[in-house]
Amino acid sequence: MVKAVGKVYIIGAGCGNIDLLTLKGKRCIEEADCIVYDRLIDPKVLDLAKNGAEKIYLGKGNTEGGLIQDEINKTLAKKALEGKIVARVKGGDPFVFGRGGEEIEEIVKYSIPFEIVPGISSSIAVPEYAGIPVTHRGLSKSFHVFTGHTAENGEWHDFKTIGKLEGTLVFLMGIKNLDKIKDDLIKNGKDPKTPIAIIEKGTSDNQRVTTGTLEDILEKAKDRKIVPPAITIIGEVVKMRDTFKWFEEQELSGKSILVTRDKKQASKFSEKVRIKGAKVRELPFIEIEDIYNFNEENLKEYKVLLFNSTNGVRSFMENLKDMRSLGNLKIGVVGKKTEELLKEYKIIPDFRPEKYLGSELAKETLKYSKDGDKILLVTSDISPADVDVWTKEYNRKFEKLEVYKTKKVIYKKDEVIKKIEDIKYIPFLSSSTVEAFHESIDGDIKLLEDKKIVSIGPVTTKTLEKLGYKVSLEAKVFDVEGVISIIGDDKNV
After folding, report:
1. 14 versus 3: which is more confidently predicted?
2. What is the reported pTM?
3. pLDDT at 63 over 50
4. Strands of 34-37's sheet, edge to edge?
5. How far apart are the first and last CA of the chain?
6. Which DSSP symbol is given to 251?
7. Neighbour count for residue 231 (Cβ, 10 Å)
8. Which of 232, 275, 296, 354 reaches 20 to 30 Å from 329, CA-CA?
9. What's the rounded Cα separation, in Å, for the pair 378 and 303?
10. Are 69 and 99 in contact (CB under 8 A)?
11. d(CA 114, CA 87)
12. DSSP 256
C-alpha cells in the first residue's frame, strides 16, 4: 500500500514576537506533525505544537545559508513524502527575503501539496515597534526594502539608483555590510546628515534602537556593539521616533522579571507582565499536584465552606461530582482572584474579607455561623492556617481539607545564576517558592545584591526575612495583580 503524501505549510511567523503570528499560522502549526523552524521565530511559537510533533531546527545565523537552505528544502520534501503535515516556520514573511520560493520549487518536484501563509514582515513591523513609520505625509511617499547581504556571486546593489530614491530605505540583515551601505549612499548623493536608525532584535523584549545620521552611525554602532539580527531604516521618517515611540513607554518597559510561581500558572503570570512590556524569564520553583480525596456526603455536616486560594477552588470544583451538595453552605473566600474563579463555576461567595488573610476569613465566619458549627477550609498541604487556634478562639469546629500538594522544584545553582543574570525583579508569591529558591542557590544570598526581591504579602515577607533576604517591595493588594502593580510603580530601577 502506497503511503499518502503529506502537505507543507510555508508559514511566515512574524518577527520575534508571538503576538505577530497570524491566526492561520497558529492553526497550521497546531495541526502539523513536523515543524521545521529557524532562529528568528519567537520560541513560544513552538509551544503551540501538538504533543508528539517532531521539531527540527535549521537556522542559518548571519549567512546567506546556501548549504543549509538546500538541507531545509530536502527535509521539507522528505517529511511530507513520509505522509506528514509539515509546518515550515520562518521569521517574517516567506517571500520577503525568506527564500520560501526555493522551498516550494523543491517540494513541487514531488507533487507535494502546499499552502503559503503570509507573515508580518520585519521591514514594516520592526520600525513600527520602534515608533518609526516607513511612510508619513510630508516626509516619505514610498519605502524600499533591500537585503543587506551581497548576492552569492558577489553582486551588490545599484546604489547609483538607490541614492536618488526619495522614499524610506529599509535594509534587512545589513549589519555586516553597514559600512558599505553608508559609504555607497553618501557616494551616490545621499546627504551625510540623513537620519538613520538601527533596530536590534525588533519586537522582542530585548529590542534596542540606535539612531544617528549616515555620517556618524558607524561610530555609534561600534560604541553600542550592535549585533544581528537587526534592520536599518534610512530617511526623514526616523525623526518621528521621538513622537511615535510606544514600545518602550509601556507600564513595565525596561523592567526584567523572573517568574517563580508554579509550573501550571507561570505562563499566565508571564503573559500578564510580557504584554505590559517587561522582559520575562521563567523558572518555576513549585509544582501543584491534585490530592483531592473527599466524600461529598460529608458536606452536610458543615455550615460554612472556605477557600483561601485559586488552586483550592480549582481542585475542589473540578472534582466535585454534584453541585447541589453545596446548597446548604455559606461560602467565604480570601482574595479577589479566588472570588473571580469561583464565579466562573457559577457560585457567588457570601463573603470576602478586605484583608487577604486566612485569619480574617476565619473571623468573618462568625457572621454566618453559631457556636459549635463545623467549618471546612479548602486548602493545601502546607497551608499556615491554624484551625486549632481558630476553633478555640471562635468556639466553632474548624477543619482543613487538603485538596492539593505543593511540591518544591530544586534547580542546580548554576542554572539559577544563569537565569537571573539579566533580571532585576524576583517576585515571590508563596513561602514554599521562597524556600525552594533558597535551597537551589545553596543559601547564597549575595547573588541577589543587585536584584529587587518582591513579596506578595506579609506571610511571604516573613519567610523571606527569616532566611535573610531584604524585601524591596511588598504588594499592597496580596495577589498577582498587586505584585505586578507594585513593580510597575517602582521608579528606583
Report:
1. 14
2. 0.80
3. no
4. 54-57, 34-37, 85-90, 7-12, 114-117
5. 66
6. T
7. 27
8. 354
9. 14
10. yes
11. 10
12. E
How, if at all, do strands 397-408 and 286-290 pair? antiparallel
Confidence at residue 46, expressed as pLDDT on a 0 to 100 scale:
95
Residue 146 has pLDDT above 80, yes or no: yes
Nearest to 90 by CA among 22, 152, 6: 22
pLDDT digits (tens, 9 = 90+) for 338-386: 999 999 999 999 999 988 888 999 999 999 999 999 999 999 988 888 9
DSSP per-residue letters across 267-287? HHHHHHHHTTT-EEEE---EE
Query: For residues 356 and 329, is the Cβ–Cβ distance under 8 A?
Result: no
Return the H-helix or E-strand segment holding 146: strand 143-147
State the Cα–Cα distance between residues 88 and 311, nearest whole angstrom: 38
What is the residue whose three cell numbers read 504588594? 475
Which helix (H) or strand (E) element contains residue 303?
none
Cα 146 to Cα 69: distance, rounded to the nearest angstrom: 20
C-alpha cell at 310: 485559586
Structural element, H or E, at residue 231: strand 230-234
Helix segments in 429-479, DSSP class H: 431-440, 458-466
Q: Using CA atoms, how far apart are residues 468 and 351, in angstroms rounded to an integer?
A: 36
**Residue type (1 letter), 44:** K
The whole-angstrom separation of Cα 245 and Cα 239 is: 11
Write b or e for each residue in 252-287: b if 16 or more Cβ atoms lie within 10 A of its Cβ, otherwise e: bbebbbbbbbbeebbbebbebbbebbbbbbebbbbe
Q: How far is CA 305 from the centre of its chain?
A: 36
Q: Could you tell me the sign of the dihedral formed by the alpha carbons of 37, 43, 45, 47, in that order?
A: positive
Report the alpha-carbon distance of residue 485 to residue 479 in Å, rounded: 10
Three-state DSSP class for residue 332: strand
pLDDT of 294 strictly over 50: yes
C-alpha 348/C-alpha 336 separation (Å) is 12
- The per-residue pLDDT for range 409-436, each reduced to its tens digit, is 999 999 999 999 999 999 999 999 999 9
Q: Could you tell me which residues come within 8 angstroms of residue 480 by beta carbon, excluding any fewer than 6 positions away?
A: 269, 272, 337, 429, 456
Catalytic residue numbers read 38, 60, 173
Residue 30 has pLDDT above 80, yes or no: yes
